[in-house]
Amino acid sequence: MNEKQRMESKQVNSSDKKSEKDFSKYFQAVYMPPSLKDAKKRGKEEVKYHNDFNISPEFQGMGNGRKFYIRTYGCQMNEHDTEVMAGIFLALGYEPTESVDDANVILLNTCAIRENAENKVFGELGHLKSLKKERPDLLLGVCGCMSQEESVVNRILKVHPHVDMVFGTHNIHRLPNILEEAYRSKEMVIEVWSKEGDVIENLPKVRKGSIKAWVNIMYGCDKFCTYCIVPYTRGKERSRRPEEIIQEVRHLAAQGYKEITLLGQNVNAYGKDFDDITYGLGDLMDELHKIDIPRIRFTTSHPRDFDDHLIEVLAKGGNLLDHIHLPVQSGSSEVLKLMARKYDRERYLELVRKIKEAMPNASLTTDIIVGFPNETEEQFEETLSLYREVEFDSAYTFIYSPREGTPAAKMQDNIPMEVKKERLQRLNSLVNEISAKKMKEYEGKVVKVLVEGESKNNPDVLAGYTEKNKLVNFKAPKSAIGKIVNVKIVKAKTWTLDGETVEETVEVN
Ligand code: 5AD
Ligand code: SF4
């Protein structure tokens, strides 16, 4: 559904949660229901670009004397959405707060990727119930990926009627209207569009720091891996125009940011949706390469769309970092087929070979799912052997979690949970073993560290990340914060490195 169709239909509405028990009717008549079925549609409809976001005069000053608190779950995309929502709150006159206790509005920006992510949010909603009882004028909202799921919205209606607002990932720019409606009606406001998605350019943002920044380059995902809920919750693949991205990165460089991470669920599909230009991630990186900003990363890659042009551009080095997060998910071609990953073991290994040939020092990290329905011991061992062969620097590892509405959730599964847990442990020990070995290789070497601040555990120690995203702790004057400095590694741990500054903290870009 596009913006026009939405305007023509009735979208925001409140439900009388107190007097009604037949929840199903809300989905038909009262508000725009989230729907996994609709979310799956991928039409030929053009992506609409909007550049006209503003705070309408009726909402100005809405937040005066009020504070907002946003709790973020899940990936960097969510973190960045939180920065946008915080920007909208500030534009409305709200102040940020670090605690739910003095917040007038609390938002939970949720993640739907695995069941335990959802359980955390439901648990938190339970805790917040007492706060809401004490202060009935507090507004409590649920947004992000979980809101896009029909079953979640139903459960909130039934079990958590103290929630005031539920809005989806396509509705963030409507936050002022949603808040206004929630204040006015004091009843649950639900606005979730099951749409393919537009691109809204000029939303305000408050970035979390002044050293590193996230920049969206595309939204949504069309890959429909059989286990994954993201294509349903985030809509279809749609790319921001290159000139908008380039301008945003230039602007961040001018403001003194040192590192940019380009974000997208499947960044390698960047530009595939343009019908007026032929332009991909390689072209974009080539342009960003010329901008005077020390570090540019991107995440997340899909092996299927990772093309030779991108490898060629990345090999130019400079501000394009040679750390690539390349989720493999499984080392077994049979499992990859069932996952609909659209590559097999050999093709993945061939891609790794090409990357290493072009960038001999490149470091690779990955995501792996164990215990996909019916995964055999042999298939799992293929994952272990692929891991050994590639020698990833590290990996995020997960037990498969069925997500309602996805094809894999309908598959019969004959693997007991104990077996899945045991496989995860075996995989994790391999991940640790190889990570420790790779970290050891840093001892005695000098690395460039972008210093982010004091270490969490010791304020006398500074911490920052290397080009390959390794956390380094070392002693140096606070004036080093925000700079890139040379650090000699004296001791390697499994996940972090201890170092000492090589020279006075001179910036080394
Ligand atoms: N179960 C377990 N892990 C999942 N991921 C995505 N969907 C699921 C699921 N249903 C993992 C994938 C992905 C990462 C972000 O989360 O490994 O790359
Ligand atoms: Fe999910 Fe696959 Fe899309 Fe990644 S590429 S977001 S795993 S569907």
From TrEMBL:
UniProt function note: Catalyzes the methylthiolation of N6-(dimethylallyl)adenosine (i(6)A), leading to the formation of 2-methylthio-N6-(dimethylallyl)adenosine (ms(2)i(6)A) at position 37 in tRNAs that read codons beginning with uridine.
GO MF: 4 iron, 4 sulfur cluster binding; metal ion binding; tRNA-2-methylthio-N(6)-dimethylallyladenosine(37) synthase activity
Subcellular compartments: Cytoplasm
Organism: Metabacillus arenae
Chemical reaction(s) catalysed: N(6)-dimethylallyladenosine(37) in tRNA + (sulfur carrier)-SH + AH2 + 2 S-adenosyl-L-methionine = 2-methylsulfanyl-N(6)-dimethylallyladenosine(37) in tRNA + (sulfur carrier)-H + 5'-deoxyadenosine + L-methionine + A + S-adenosyl-L-homocysteine + 2 H(+)
Limits of the Radical SAM core domain: 207-437
The protein's name in its UniProt record: tRNA-2-methylthio-N(6)-dimethylallyladenosine synthase
Pfam families attached to this UniProt entry: Radical_SAM (PF04055), TRAM (PF01938), UPF0004 (PF00919)
Cofactor(s) listed: [4Fe-4S] cluster
Subunit composition and interactions: Monomer.
